[in-house]
Amino acid sequence: MALSADVHAQAPAESNAAGELAQLTDQVLRTAATHYNQGRYAEAEALYREVLSIMPQHAEASHNMAVLLVQTRRIESSWPFFEAAITARPAQKSYWLNYIDALIIDERKTDAWEALELAQKMARLNAEEVSDSIARLVDSGYAAKANQILEPAQAQPLAEALQGGALRGGAGKVLPAARRKLAVKPAGDKVDRLLDLYNRNKLDQATKGARELTESYPHFGLGWKLLGLLLYKQGKVSEAIPPLQEAVELLPEDFYVHDALAMIFKEQGRLKEAETYFAGAMAARPDCSTTRLSLASIIFAQTRHKEVEAMMRELTRDDPSYFPAYQLLGQALRELGRQEEAVACLQKAVDLKPEYLYAHSTLLFGVLHNQALSKEDIFRRHLHFGKVCETLSAPAFDSHANSRQADRRLNIGFVSGDFYNHAVATFLEPILRHLAQDESLCLHAYHNTYKFDHYTERLKTHFAHWESVFELPDQVVAEKIRSDGIDILVDLSGHTGSNRLATLAKKPAPIQASWIGYPGTTGLKAVDYYLADPYLMPPGKFDSQFTEKIAYLRAQSPFSPPRYSPPVNALPALRNGFITFGSFNRINKLSQDVIRLWSRLLLAAPNARMFLGGMPPEGEYDCLIEWFEQEGIGRDRLEFHPRAGTPVYLQMHHHVDVCLDAFPYAGGTTTLNALWMGVPTLTITGATLPTQIAAWSLNQLGLGEFVSEGEEEFIRKALFWTENLEQLASLRSGMRDRFEQSPLMRPDDIAKDLSRLFRVMWQRWCAGEPPAVIGTDGI
């Protein structure tokens, strides 16, 4: 195992101070190498620790420290130093080769083989180097030979480590500060004790020590890093930010500091700041696929989907087996309206990692947007997921100790990744306000996301018990649900993000149901019921597409008008002299087939205009313009408006006479909001549940005349309204009265229905009866 010592000509520095520090550090490393080669390991170690106290990520000092620890039979302590060296210079062959040798010495041959594979990719080992490593791996006597003292080897110039921001401050300030850091620093054993406390999870003691360290040595970056990470680990997120930001100033190339800050700001929804720090983490580890994915995910959250596409295409070229990249690429393509490409990428992610259930769910959510797939194919794909999920989740609990007393108080659990300002939460909260008052029920929440906002705070008040399960394994969550004695577990996510279907597959509760979050089957045999209403799922129409039995409410969910809703205005067509069609659907619903149909309508109504709200940043919707132009609709007939806050978004409806729905995944919340603003939506129903979503709200308000069963009927109905503006104006002015008279505005009745429905499900289980369709007459 070769020790590296920098023997080189000083590279030009940006300032005399930087050059002087480089010369000083070089001299320390030379002296340390001499001590090492002459067997004075304690003296060498002290010098390496001195350098690392100033620059904890210094590649050569980290590497040589690791080699020294191996040489002095402290191999377990060497791994962080090897990691730091390789992280700083992943292309340095000698680091990898010595790391592999250390793994062999420690008899970790499986890890050594994996390291060799990585070294081939990152350091581009030549055939001879690979062959030598393989020979050492299969040579059982190698470990005995490795304890000899080897001659020092040449290394990369130290000046490289002193560039790129490693030294901060003006030319006249760098060297004095550096000298102070060399002269005034914590003893190595003090840092070791802190690290030991951290690794043994003695967080209070470690935090106290880290605070003292930052007070005594304010220029010691590792102290600030430790303090920040300790506070973060204890959930003291706001307190962790200042020390981590101080650490990033002192350790600008430290991956972990950048990554921790990025994660904090991501959790707080401060996406721009998260992006900045993820970019810093990527700069520290440019070849790290996970970091590149994290940065792209934050950009995705900011709806810059074209950037994400470019980043993930590059990543899939660089690391073609990295399956999460195909998933994010598929999601970006879906947002750009390129559904068939999206499904192909998502399928690739599943093919590469069949046991990665999140990729399966993302794919299934994607196929619901694909017009080319039949209802049979979509159902078959969901059944395949169910089989994979239940196989991976085995064994499921085959019995439950819940008391079979039919009239006792029931423990009802709700599991969701959407307990924050999300459409699911807006539907759920009005019901919870009444359900929580039902003394026959005890409500439990299983919060499966890091997101926490004012909506979360309000939701918590309606539950008797609240558990955060975001970071817990499925088995642990399942056992928690069983220990809580949950009688009926309600999934609110389906195949959307942050779902817990793998937990449900273990059957932790005797009765399980899916509701609100996803317009389709879970595909799981372990889920017994799907909650809906007759307008959403006409009896018998969709039963063959569900593994669950349908349980009917009078309304699937209520509607809560947004707090800052503008009033309904007069029909704009009466003022403009032409009709304006609109859409506020997500861009990922606007496929080329959708644009083709809308263009046919615009050609048939040559004076009409198209208003598209909720659009991503300019440039992200160029494909829509291109698709319209291909069908003969010029840019001058189209208005694009970006996403906006709720009041502005609702006010945009003042410019729209009739909304046009997308297909095959119709608008849900967007249709309800448009109706609240007096604007009806023309929709097409089909053979799958997602096509029924807009028809559900229209039929609840008695507006079945806006529902079509095919494209020709859709165009005929749209043209009818272009010629009957007074009738359309009358509907607009009376729309909120329709809401007031519908079940959508009576969450108390829905809560009563739900409570009775839970009781029927429970009574059937107590009687040993299997799940069955429960109609309105059954509750």
From TrEMBL:
The keyword tRNA-binding does not apply. Its EC number is 2.4.1.255. It is an enzyme of class 2 (transferase). PROSITE patterns: TPR (PS50005). The keyword Transcription does not apply. Keywords: Glycosyltransferase, Repeat, TPR repeat, Transferase. Pathway: Protein modification; protein glycosylation. One of its GO terms (molecular function) is protein O-acetylglucosaminyltransferase activity. SUPFAM superfamilies: TPR-like. Residues 359-554, 575-747 form the O-GlcNAc transferase C-terminal domain. Pfam families: Glyco_transf_41, TPR_16, TPR_19, TPR_8. It comes from the Bacteria. TPR repeats lie at residues 25-58, 221-254, 323-356. InterPro entries: Glycosyltr_41/O-GlcNAc_trsf, OGT/SEC/SPY_C, TPR-like_helical_dom_sf, TPR_rpt. Belongs to the glycosyltransferase 41 family. O-GlcNAc transferase subfamily. This is protein O-GlcNAc transferase. It comes from Noviherbaspirillum humi. The lineage of its organism: Bacteria, Pseudomonadati, Pseudomonadota, Betaproteobacteria, Burkholderiales.
